[in-house]
From TrEMBL:
<dbReference type="InterPro" id="IPR011990">
    <property type="entry name" value="TPR-like_helical_dom_sf"/>
</dbReference>
<feature type="repeat" description="TPR">
    <location>
        <begin position="138"/>
        <end position="171"/>
    </location>
</feature>
<feature type="compositionally biased region" description="Basic and acidic residues">
    <location>
        <begin position="637"/>
        <end position="646"/>
    </location>
</feature>
<feature type="repeat" description="TPR">
    <location>
        <begin position="70"/>
        <end position="103"/>
    </location>
</feature>
<protein>
    <submittedName>
        <fullName>Tetratricopeptide repeat protein</fullName>
    </submittedName>
</protein>
<feature type="repeat" description="TPR">
    <location>
        <begin position="562"/>
        <end position="595"/>
    </location>
</feature>
<feature type="region of interest" description="Disordered">
    <location>
        <begin position="625"/>
        <end position="646"/>
    </location>
</feature>
<dbReference type="Pfam" id="PF13432">
    <property type="entry name" value="TPR_16"/>
</dbReference>
<feature type="repeat" description="TPR">
    <location>
        <begin position="459"/>
        <end position="492"/>
    </location>
</feature>
<dbReference type="Pfam" id="PF14559">
    <property type="entry name" value="TPR_19"/>
</dbReference>
<dbReference type="InterPro" id="IPR019734">
    <property type="entry name" value="TPR_rpt"/>
</dbReference>
<keyword id="KW-0802">TPR repeat</keyword>
Length: 646
């Protein structure tokens, strides 16, 4: 199942059920005593007892007597939805909507049902209407976010999830989805930048940073040195090289590069790197005093970049630094800075999720004419606040300055606004894309971490995070998240399916088989579980055993069906039935995103003597494979994006 298309949480049904109980009893009193009200009372009683089949039967009895009461149709639809009868629910909700177009529940669930069926454009239409009816319902925005995400309209999805988190700040799932959406925007923007100009200094800086995050330190060093040999390198590129050299243990070279950026002005990152070197030399008191000076210049910078202090720092040194912070004089380092730095050493979140976190002091700023001076003095927060009021009228240079200042002080939403304005008003694509990507990545990390803080024991959140790890090839981290979910509830169906799929991606067939058998024991008719079992059987080359599972999976939602056809093609090819295999592969080509299905089809055409068709299939396979490789090489600092599993 797609990571952003899970059904709504059960709490929503309870809220709507309570509302409709009142409505239904009112409806019954309007029509008086008799069979109609008797059916309604039976339905409400069964619904209260959790007897969904009995409630459905009672509601069906009521609508058989009167077909013109929208509330009854709506509650019948709710019960059918909970029972998994999507087609029946759609009929009931459509009837209710036709009778009363402004009744909220049918509109909402027509959106959610269409979303589950993969009809995302229709889902957006209904959910947009639901938003007009109930503009402050977070579930509406969650549905809209999922629909837009499925349509790859990530900007719209981001806006929807942002509103959902504003309305329900304690929803870990909303924060999670908001974070993942920012990841997708960063990935799409990276691909756009790669297509525009890979030789751009801004692209190369992102490339160097990505290599550093992957641990490819030699390649990162070479990329930074080439970048610094040409003009117009992005801000703090030399300091970033210094940080890579620290990781490589080349201390004297690192010191040299960091001091160069420190002397040029405007780069507190260089100062932070020098503090890291001071800590390594045991000059803890000097480091603490320097941190106090940075905090006085801009608390936001230190909050946003405190992790630099622990680059390649041994655990014992971290412990000693923590003790020194606990004993630091307030004259050297304010209490707020001490608590923030100690939190950072523990791996905690140091930035507020909704923008700048003030230390309570009053800070005066002067008009934007002084912004460059603020930047040079590394007072990024003052620089940001002096420029932001004039955002729509700033020159290109001032917008670039605003993007840099806001990024370094941790105001990433402002960075996005400045980057967007750069692209729209001045067609400054390269600098605009650069700051957009960096801000999207940092926001993604921030929201994903916060999601875990909001609901640390949520099975649902562990499942969602596991899926994100899977999507990025981090299978061991995904396995750990599924294990946490299954430790909480060993019969958790979604976690069993996800764990099985994760093992399959690692080619660990036996544990995959164990997990999917446990899932099928919970729900033998589930289409996705049958699909995964079919994959397991194919991996074992048990083609006859795979076929019935895959045929059972053909009733899955529309987007999964082409993949089922591809697997059936593999089954028939494995059994030597070339003609049937070709037909199944042709039916599944729409799911081929890496060229593998076209390649297998080409081999089957060759076997059948269809040379021209084989050549066409191989050509399409090559094109799809190249497209996949290009996307994979985009600048997505993926290991940096998702917080490591504890």
């Amino acid at each position: 199942m797609n990571r952003c298309e899970h059904p709504p949480r059960r709490g929503l049904f309870g809220k709507l059920r309570d509302c409709f109980f009142f409505l239904l009893l009112s409806v019954g009193s309007v029509f008086g005593q008799g069979d109609f009200e008797s059916h309604l009372q039976d339905a409400v009683k069964a619904q209260s007892a959790g007897d969904i089949p009995a409630a459905i039967a009672a509601y069906q009895g009521a609508v058989a007597i009167r077909q013109d009461v929208p509330e009854v149709w709506a509650n019948l639809g709710l019960m059918q939805h909970q029972a998994g009868d999507s087609s029946g629910a759609m009929v009931s909700f459509r009837t209710a909507n036709k009778l009363q177009p402004k009744l909220f529940v049918p509109v909402l669930f027509l959106g959610l049902e269409n979303l589950q069926l993969g009809n995302r454009a229709e889902a957006v239409r209904y959910l947009s209407t639901a938003r007009q009816l109930h503009p402050n319902d977070p579930e509406v925005y969650m549905g809209l976010g999922r629909a837009y995400f499925g349509l790859k309209q990530f900007e719209n999805a981001s806006l929807a999830y942002r509103r959902a988190t504003e309305l329900n700040k304690k929803s870990g799932e909303a924060w999670y989805r908001r974070g993942v959406t920012h990841l997708e925007i960063a990935e799409a923007t990276s691909g756009e930048f790669a297509a525009l100009n890979r030789q751009s200094p801004y692209f190369q800086e992102l490339n160097a940073e990505s290599l550093n995050d992957q641990g490819k330190l030699v390649e990162a060093t070479e990329t930074y040195r080439k970048l610094l040999a040409v003009p117009d390198a992005p801000p703090c590129s030399r300091a970033s090289l210094g940080l890579v050299l620290i990781r490589r243990g080349e201390v004297s070279e690192a010191q040299n590069e960091l001091e160069k950026d420190q002397k040029s002005g405007g780069c507190s990152l260089a100062e932070l790197g020098l503090i890291r070197l001071a800590l390594a030399r045991g000059e803890t008191q000097l480091a603490i005093q320097s941190l106090g000076a940075l905090w006085e210049l801009d608390p936001g910078f230190l909050r946003a970049h405190a992790s630099v202090l622990t680059i390649e720092m041994p655990a014992e040194q971290i412990s000693n630094f923590d003790q020194a912070l606990a004993q630091a004089s307030s004259a050297d380092l304010p209490a707020g800075a001490v608590s923030m730095l100690r939190l950072s050493l523990q791996g905690g979140r140091t930035l507020a999720v909704d923008g700048y976190e003030s230390d309570g002091s009053v800070v005066d700023v002067t008009p934007s004419q002084r912004a460059q001076d603020y930047y040079t003095r590394r007072e990024y927060w003052r620089c940001t606040k002096s420029l932001l009021p004039a955002l729509t009228t700033l020159s290109r240079d001032k917008l670039s300055l605003l993007a840099a200042c806001s990024f370094y002080t941790g105001e990433f939403q402002t960075t996005l606004a400045a980057a967007k304005r750069l692209r729209q008003a001045y067609h400054a694509e390269e600098v605009g894309l650069y700051w957009s990507i960096r801000a999207e990545q940092r926001l993604a990390v921030l929201y994903l971490i916060y999601a875990g803080e909001v609901e640390p024991d949520s099975i649902r959140l562990h499942e969602l995070l596991a899926e994100s790890y899977r999507d990025r090839g981090k299978f061991s981290d995904a396995e750990a998240e599924y294990k946490v979910a299954l430790d909480i509830n060993p019969r958790e169906f979604a976690a069993l399916i996800g764990a099985a799929a994760n093992y399959l991606q690692e080619q660990r067939i036996d544990p995959a088989a164990e997990m999917i058998q446990r899932a099928l024991a919970e729900n033998p008719s589930d289409s996705e579980a049958n699909y995964v079992m079919g994959e397991v059987m194919i991996a074992k080359h048990s083609y006859p055993e795979a076929e019935p599972y895959l045929k059972a999976a053909l009733v899955a939602k529309a987007e999964l069906v082409p993949r089922v056809h591809v697997l059936l093609g593999q089954v028939y090819a494995g059994q030597g039935d070339t003609a049937r295999a070709i037909e199944e592969f042709k039916a599944g080509l729409s799911s081929d995103d890496d060229g593998s299905a076209h390649f297998q089809l080409g081999r089957l055409y060759q076997k059948s003597g269809e040379g021209k068709l084989a050549a066409d299939a191989f050509e399409k396979s090559k094109a799809l494979s190249q497209r996949k490789q290009t996307a994979a090489s985009g600048l997505m600092e993926q290991d940096k994006q998702l917080p490591p599993h504890p």
